[in-house]
Amino acid sequence: MSENATTETTEDRIDIARAAALMAAVDGAERDLTVGSALPPFAHHAFFWAALPEAALGRDGTPAPGQGGPVPDLGLPVRMYAGGQVRWHAPFRASIQAERVSRVTSITRKEGQSGALAFVTIRHDIRQRGQAVLSEDQTLVYRGAAGPGDPVTVTEEVDERRALKLTAVGLFRFSALTFNGHRIHYDADYARELGYPGLVVHAPLMAMHLALWAEERQGRLDRFAFRAVSPLYLGDVAWLCRAGNRYWVEGPKRRLCLTAEAG
């Protein structure tokens, strides 16, 4: 499995202002955060930046293969988010030094309709004051070409739904706060070059909206797993949907964009 995979350790002080900015960008909420405040789910995505120089980035705006991070060069230049699972062991708190240890736990190569694919799972373990705070298994897919696959339609009955309203400014701010340079989220011409009709909404942004809703309904979460199914595009009519503890994002014509389960 190794393919020369590495382990990476990153430290960060969990800045209150950045955490507040993320929440303002995602749900418009103003939170009174102080030292030690428990942060909402997915707030950790705004920290532990891989601040590489532009020369170390690929054409898509993400780190070029083999440039920084624990993922080796797999010979596949296009990176997409496939899904993940977060487990919380304790609250992730503001203004406290944190350490994240990242390592590749699996690399699976496959042949898809568009050619070679590699699914890479990275385990991130975060600690504060020597205590385990959360573990995230993040799955990325690397490929030689991008573009949307065949859409999947929602068949499940809905208990509850909420409109998901997204703007170009919101996508840009989320990219900036998570230090995500992937051009499909802010460069519409580039997205169309890859076969998409417009800007693509971040899978973690959709997951964060669902996780915030799940926390609102269920209280503090212990686990949240999600999987990207079909792209959601800026301008699509979109809904956050729920049936029990299962959540999903639905696009036009009941297109299933992302599924999740909260526990």
Automatic annotation (TrEMBL):
Residues 73-134 form the FAS1-like dehydratase domain. GO terms for molecular function: (3R)-hydroxyacyl-[acyl-carrier-protein] dehydratase activity. It holds the Pfam family FAS1_DH_region. It comes from the Bacteria. SUPFAM superfamilies: Thioesterase/thiol ester dehydrase-isomerase (SSF54637). This is Acyl dehydratase.
